Amino acid sequence: MQPARLPSIVILISGRGSNMEAIVRACAAEQWPARVAAVISNRPDAPGLRFAQQQGIATAVVDHRLATSREAFEAELAACIDAFEPSAVALAGFMRVLTPGFVRHYAGRLINIHPSLLPAFPGLGTHRRALDSGVKWHGATVHLVTPDVDHGPIVAQAPVPVHDDDTEAMLTARVLEEEHRIYPAAVRALVERRLQVQGLRVRVLAASPVQAGEVVR
Length: 217
Ligand code: GAR
Known about the structure:
This protein is an alpha/beta fold. The protein contains six helices and nine strands. The longest helix has 24 residues, at 168-191. Glycinamide ribonucleotide (GAR) binds next to helix 1, strand 5 and helix 6.
């Protein structure tokens, strides 16, 4: 009899991949009942691909610049993702806006980290905008992805203080440290099916002690 395969996680990146790295490390260190099956980038030169390869994780590139249209890019990306039959698809610094059709295809499985306390500062340049607006608290949000960009049900948030003498780099680093803490925990909760979603509200159920190697269905 074939041994049961662990549920798969596919991670999408566009660059450095430090959040992907945090998920991969947590998955191994905490012996999640799941495995990171693949890391896919839309940029061939994404530095994060190297880390994934070193870990023995399958990698792929679906270069949006080579696609004839957004639909063609997403069709190729979805085919690449679906080959791994993932229980969770984690966007980790994946800098492409996804169409509603693509998002619906992964409804309930697609999760994202955003570098602000949503609904404040959706979009790009969040740290600069936080400094310029004078907020005293900034942070990071993990949310389920819906067609409404940066507005999906919130799974986790981490606030960080904004200090008087902060530069954009200092604030970015403080937020990133929190991203690496909350994102792996949220992805784990998703693959362990511990998220109860009602409208925009998400209840994260406590983890039950799972035996190493046990498969959660
Ligand atoms: C992270 O700060 C992530 O929150 C942000 O990009 C960075 C990627 O860093 N994502 C977005 O801005 C999505 N809109 P990483 O490649 O080192 O994980």
